[in-house]
Amino acid sequence: xxxxxxxxxxxxxxxxxxxxxxxxxxxxxxxxxxxxxxxxGIRTMVAGVLDESAELGxxxxxxxxxxxxxxxxxxxxxxxxxxxxxxxRLWAAHCEAPLDAIALPIHGAGVAEGYPDIEAAQLRxxxxxxGPDIPIGMVLDLHGNITPEMMELSNISxxxxxxxxxxxxxxxxxxxxxxxxxxxTGKRLHQALVQxxxxxxxxxxxxxxxxxxxxxAFNQQMVKDDPALRDVTFFQGFPYSDVSFxxxxxxxxxxxxxxxxxxxxKAAEYAWSRRQDFLIPLNSAEQxxxxxxxxxxxxxxxESSDNPxxxxxxxxxxxxxxxxxxxxxGSVYGYIFDPEVVQQAIAAGVGSRxxxxxxxxxxxxxGQPLELKGAYIKTISDGKYLKKNPMxxxxxxxxxxxxxxxxxxxxxxxxxxxxxxxxxxxxxxxxIDWQDMRIIALKSAQHFxxxxxxxxxxxxxxDSPGIHSGDLTTFAFRHANTDxxxxxxxxxx
Length: 493
Ligand SMILES: [Zn+2]
What we know:
By secondary structure, the protein is an alpha/beta fold. It folds into two domains: 2-278, no CATH class; 285-469, no CATH class. The protein contains 14 helices and 19 strands. The strands form four sheets. An eight-stranded mixed sheet has the order 12-13-16-17-11-18-10-19. A hairpin with a 2-residue loop joins strand 16 (402-407) and strand 17. Helix 3 runs parallel beside helix 7 (168-185), helix 4 (76-96) packs parallel to helix 5 and helix 8 packs antiparallel against helix 9 (257-273). It starts with a strand and ends in a 31-residue tail after the last strand.
């Protein structure tokens, strides 16, 4: 069997002011053997595709693939140039020796200018060149906004079950296993989609416990119990992409169309019956600090509303301002994005003091810049560390040039790249042993829990104002359906 894989993976937050430009696309795209080498030994979707293929004796041809960090939509020309190259490379692989299937490890909530559904756009372009027969499989993120068009243009879609996404690698493997099954048995699998009138903010989506965990367990049990089923995935959707079809959904893959449809329907009914349970109270910065001070430490406070992993700028100052106001011994803020302050601190050097305006420079949604006087420069780092979170463990993480500032009792890590904090990497490179700290603040909605759960004694969520807030009433949606639950209270049967 011979397959080829590639694609463009992006989670688009249309409230962000930072687009994916052609220059960014140039940076992130990997081609051919360089693509395969880059993912070898790391727990990613692509590595899952490669490893499963190797085990099953499948020739897996890497074409072109890249993941852009979550932010605003991709520029039209850059996206179109990518799609042309993807299709050309897939076709070249096919002309060398016929392909039996194509695998796209992508996302499901990607938007480009003029393309509200970039997954369907990639599929359509491939179909135009290859025709209707070649099996195309997708691995999709649990935050995908899944559309009927995506289903019609592909044969098999599987999604991450977990949030934190600790099963990205396994999902890549599953897709290849199902493509292989189809190929060896000669029997096509079928998929079905049921969309729900429901927006789920990432602040409510954790699958380690609570309603999202129950929904995942329900679906996994269905697959175990029914030999005709191969996969059932509950997609939470991504409201911030602000497209008309944003929302939660369920997909199922089965031996027959009827079995897939029945399973998707049953799973959707169960998830929908639990929708009220997803709404947990959200804490302001002040409330989060109050809770943290009463809790067993080390306490992690995650500022979910400014999560760069969901397209927020990562330079919001609401929680940091509150920490500076309280000035609790053993506090660390890790980290805030501000490359200007990093350069100012590097120019001044370790051991000196600077006055600066920190953070809130990207847009007007994430607080005011903080005026720091005499901030002491403790460490300077290149920002590189080995990733330990199950998401991408074994790879090199980088938050680019990083400095540690000390202001009163608060240690502030300032970095030059927007990334979500997944493990203790940013703290270690700054010279902080988090186990010595009382309050550890970071910007992430749920993914950080893949590493911090069981290590921090307490986790407190903080929902300051921001473009990744769990409070959907604060968003001026232009396209997303505002009648959907919980903004409205729609009927669904
Ligand atoms: Zn996701």
